[in-house]
Please model this.
Amino acid sequence: MRRKLVVGNWKMHGRLSTNTVLLDKVIAGVRELQRADYAVCVPYPYLSQVQSKLQATNIAWGAQNLNQFEEGAFTGAVSPGMLTDFGCRYVIIGHSERRGLFHESNEIASAKFDAALKAGLTPIFCVGETLAEREAGVTEQVVGKQLDAVLDCAGPKGLAKAVVAYEPVWAIGTGKTASPEQAQAVHAFIRQRVAQQDSQVAQALCILYGGSVKAGNSAELFAMPDIDGGLIGGAALVADDFVAICRAAQ
Ligand code: PEP
Model:
């Protein structure tokens, strides 16, 4: 039986003072929830803050991106080792905002995936189709290609050390959630695609759903057989909502 995981993606939100309030409420709300795993992925400047606030709790933390190189003349970039220095367990790779706004290709995403694994981080590897792609009926081709990019580079054994997040682009931050059945169908496709290479890895793989998950729809999504939790954007910034979603994963 796979353990559920709920990860908050703060994106470019937060300030020291508001983070303290949010974290204190989430820590208190999640403290008793022992049957699932929890994490928050925060902007780089707040890694030190979350490390000191979360280190003695049942909430892990991570970043939302990294650079694939270990060090060098890459102004503004952050290396995998810098993330482990701050106790990160997770790093989000290939989020659609990185792919779309920062032009990250499948090749870059898989190089980052590989670099994260080498540093001992758990990549949360995002895949998902746009609305135009869904309407054109090519969801499986798009998601399959994104997944193959890491399977080709890290293999199923690499994927075994990662988490996959299915995030339909049309559902991110739009309030339009995929129905549990729509999400389940793509999750089952992902698992089956991995199973073609390694059925044990596929069975154990944690596949999160992301895209307008809210307190009110999380339980029905998490009840689907191939949905192993959620990657939560907007609702992760509201303590009561995030705690309710964490509770739904129990
Ligand atoms: C995300 O950014 O990964 C996300 C799923 O956002 P939201 O929950 O706001 O749709």
About this structure: The pocket of phosphoenolpyruvate is lined by residues 9, 11, 167, 172-173, 210-213, 231-235 (CB under 6 Å).
